[in-house]
Amino acid sequence: MTNALTLAKASIAIGLLVLGIKTLAWWITGSVALLSDALESIVNVATAVAALLALRVAAQPADDNHPYGHHKAEYFSAVLEGVLIVIAALLILHSAARGLLNPQPIEAPFTGLGINLIAGAINGWWCFVLIRAGRRLSSPALSADGRHLLSDVVSSLGVTVGVAAAVWTGWLWLDPVLAALVAVNILWSGWQVIRGSVGGLMDESVPTSDLETVRALILSHAEGAIEAHDLRARHAGAATFVEFHLVVPEDMTVLVAHEICDRIEAALKARIDNCTVTIHVEPRHKAKPDEALVI
Length: 295
Hints:
Layout: H1 2-29, H2 32-58, H3 73-101, H4 109-137, H5 140-169, H6 174-201, H7 208-221, E1 227-236, E2 239-247, H8 254-271, E3 275-282, E4 293-294
Parallel strand pairs: 2-3
Antiparallel strand pairs: 1-2, 1-4
Helix pairs in contact: 1-2, 1-4, 2-3, 2-5, 2-6, 3-5, 3-6, 4-5, 5-6, 7-8
């Protein structure tokens, strides 16, 4: 978690740097499209701050009021990011509409575009760092921040090409139209971020591939048991929760059944980081052959 917090702090610093560079590019050119790019960077800074706060909360240990930990705080951060992205898109659409009604010439376009490309290159490198770290650390907050930055990079490239085309052709209306396209791209990014976060808040099951891994680990470490059934698994931020029922022979001692449970739990925790396992031991007559994992 320390690594995630460090990355979140760095995101704020980089976001402020990129915001300053993009604002300079807009100030030099007066381009509505470049203004839209700068407005999105304001959201980048806000989401980086939200991610840092969420990671701080998520890092707190379980307590009496939160016995399962504070992991889901990251999902709230990601939802907030999605909402901020949508607000930024609406502001950009407003600016685009004004620019379309009253197109303005673009001043010093290539100087401004060159400056904007520097900001885009910084964002491109940093979004790659965040997406990789988000996957490695199972952090929804960092992943959401990285995906949003990726949409920003795509927008910046589109804006650069479009503004250059507007200058070359003299079609001033291209500038606000590009700003509107940037807004649409941002809206899509915001929807993706909110969609993934809501799934986590609603305790959506882990992906099928992860569930198959859990099943395989149970089967290979449950020697002595009869079957396992009612398997469920979910993510909560960086934590994974696994629970199932384990059927054992009626004459098996509590000690032996406990040893099997310990063996399975150790295998799952060795393979899945920050994993909490709950096993309900049952006698043979509770078996469910039609839906069980036969040991």
